[in-house]
Design a protein that fits this description.
The longest helix is centred in the middle third of the chain and has 18 residues, at about 170-190. By secondary structure, this protein is α+β, with helices and mostly antiparallel strands. It folds into two domains: about 60-260, Cytochrome Bc1 Complex, Chain A, domain 1, CATH 3.30.830; about 285-495, Metalloenzyme, LuxS/M16 peptidase-like (Cytochrome Bc1 Complex, Chain A, domain 1), CATH 3.30.830. It has helices at about 100-105, 115-125, 155-165, 170-190, 190-205, 215-220, 225-235, 250-260, 315-325, 330-340, 370-385, 390-405, 410-425, 435-440, 445-455, 465-475, and strands spanning about 60, 65-70, 80-85, 130-135, 140-150, 240-245, 285-290, 295-305, 345-350, 355-365, 460-465, 480-485, 490-495. A hairpin with a 6-residue loop joins β4 and β5 (about 140-150). The two termini are about 30 Å apart. α3 runs parallel beside α8 (about 250-260), α9 (about 315-325) packs across α15 and α12 runs antiparallel to α14 (about 435-440).
């Protein structure tokens, strides 16, 4: 359920085997790192740095505090828009009511003071428009996203304003929502990927809001219409909100439309919402979520990393690309192409206002759990302790820049980049200079950042699989805390416990 932010290398949540730390004793596994995999069929590349000057969103601040951003693009007669409500995200859930922000966002479309859920759905279908609201347990903001043909934008914006400003949270819709959500909460606990993410979040973030990845059935059951209305009244305010539009519309026309439909949304004087970094991560450890008779093991290795404004962001982007950036990443080439342990192995990081996380993950056959984990950790040790070969290094940077260049064709992506720049107070030319900054990253910087964030003493291993078959392999990497699929600690095994 972790939602990764735009332009983060994934999107939207690292180890040495032989040099100390919890996994210094790797069970004597001697499998060597990848030696023979080869990337073929490469197209010719240019050494010139991509020079861009991106279209900039026009910006204005309305009288009620709404920050309006418009990126005009007349190629297609459509407009997409987003209302971003800073402070209405799951980060601000009450400590004893996890999921309330998500419940509120999910129920916005289920009825207003003048329209029923069915009437809203029929109106959107008639207009061929789209409208939905969402947030995530770890995000600061909730968002209402919509799109329509240019000729139907005014009607769609009217619906959006009604949904956003006048939700009624009908009791019958809340009851239906609870039934659907309860079934989903039960089902998600059957998914090993969810169990791995849940445990890693608790390990990395502790009691920090980002440590919550899903509501509980108890939190869902106790939610009342009054709870939803109170959360909406407190956090759905225009004071720090952003309204962003992209497509077949000018700033002048967008301002008229937004002021017509949102101009009466009263500023409340609410202070800028704040966040805090999670507490420092504990010493490295191994965690097993036992699932009897599993035929594969989900492995995740993770740690705390950086926030979005960190000076290490670009370097970490390059490091991540080398380790787990798709089919050319070292983890993929090693664990899939060379060893045949898995269909895929990747890494990603999340960088928000608070310090986020970095993780590497894969799913492997049960019988190769120990060998696959050793290889994963060995690749992390290698990037920390050895300079990246120059050709591999240059290819990784070109890959990042090429992906960035391809993304420039989409007005929505361009607008999203402008929104990111605004939300994180980045320089006006931040994205213009992105290729230049990526290509300027050095091998020495990558090795330094790897040593800083991939320290074996800070890295945690989560495995979801059949404990009867994989516990012994895992204990060769350190003491193992064994949990059931409900998140309850059962026992600790190995390494002096």
């Amino acid at each position: 359920m972790r939602v990764r932010p735009p332009v983060v290398v994934l999107v939207g949540t690292l180890v040495a085997v032989a040099t100390g730390g919890a996994w210094a004793q790797a069970g004597g596994q001697q499998t060597q790192s990848i030696t023979g995999a080869e990337v073929k069929g490469l197209a010719p590349v240019s050494d010139e740095i991509l020079q861009v000057e991106l279209p900039k969103a026009e910006e204005a601040v309305l009288d009620n505090g709404l920050h309006l951003m418009v990126l005009e693009d007349r190629r297609v007669p459509t407009v997409s828009f987003q209302v971003i409500l800073i402070g209405a995200g799951g980060y601000y859930d009450p400590p004893d009511h996890a999921g309330l922000a998500g419940f509120t966002a999910s129920l916005l479309r289920e009825g207003t003071t003048t329209r029923s859920s069915v009437e809203i759905a029929e109106a959107l279908e008639t207009l061929a428009s789209r409208l939905n609201a969402s947030t995530d347990m770890s995000l600061q903001a909730a968002s209402l996203n919509g799109s329509s043909l240019t000729e139907h934008l005014d009607e769609t914006m009217a619906l959006a304003a009604d949904v956003l400003l006048h939700p009624s949270f009908p009791e019958e819709e809340l009851a239906l929502f609870k039934d659907r959500e309860r079934a989903g909460l039960i089902q998600e606990r059957t998914r090993p990927g969810f169990l791995a993410v849940e445990r890693l979040a608790k390990v990395i973030y502790g009691e920090h809001p980002a440590g919550r990845v899903s509501p509980t059935p108890e939190s869902l059951d106790k939610t009342t219409r009054e709870d939803l209305r109170a959360f909406h009244q407190a956090y759905y305010v225009p004071d720090h909100a952003v309204v962003a539009l992209a497509g077949d519309i000018s700033m002048a026309d967008a301002r008229v439309a937004v002021e017509r439909h949102f101009g009466d949304w009263a500023n409340t004087g609410t202070p800028q919402p704040t966040v805090e970094d999670p507490p420092p991560i504990a010493a490295a450890r191994v965690y097993l979520i036992n699932r009897d008779a599993s035929v594969q093991t989900n492995l995740v290795v993770g740690t705390q990393a950086i926030n979005r404004t960190s000076s290490d962001y670009d370097v970490l982007t390059v490091m991540n690309q080398i380790i787990g950036g798709g089919a050319t990443g070292r983890l993929f080439l090693n664990l899939r192409e060379d060893k045949g342990y898995t269909y895929g192995a990747y890494s990603s990081f999340t960088a928000l206002r608070y310090r986020g996380d970095w993780d590497a993950s894969t799913e492997v056959r049960t019988e190769v759990t120990g060998d696959a984990l050793a290889e994963l950790l060995r690749e992390l040790e290698r990037i920390r302790d050895e300079p990246v070969p120059n050709q591999e290094f240059q290819d990784a940077k070109r890959n990042i820049v090429a992906g960035f260049a391809l993304s420039l064709e989409s007005p929505g992506t361009l607008l999203g980049s402008s929104v990111v720049r605004h939300l994180y107070d980045l320089p006006d030319d931040h994205w213009d200079r992105y290729p230049e900054r990526i290509m300027a990253v050095t091998r020495e910087q990558v090795q330094t950042v790897a040593a800083r964030y991939l320290d074996a003493e800070r890295l945690h291993i989560v495995a979801v699989g059949d404990g009867a078959q994989i516990t012994d392999a895992l204990t060769s990497f350190g003491a193992v805390d064994v949990y059931d699929d409900q998140g309850t600690l059962i026992e600790t095994r190995g390494a002096g416990q």
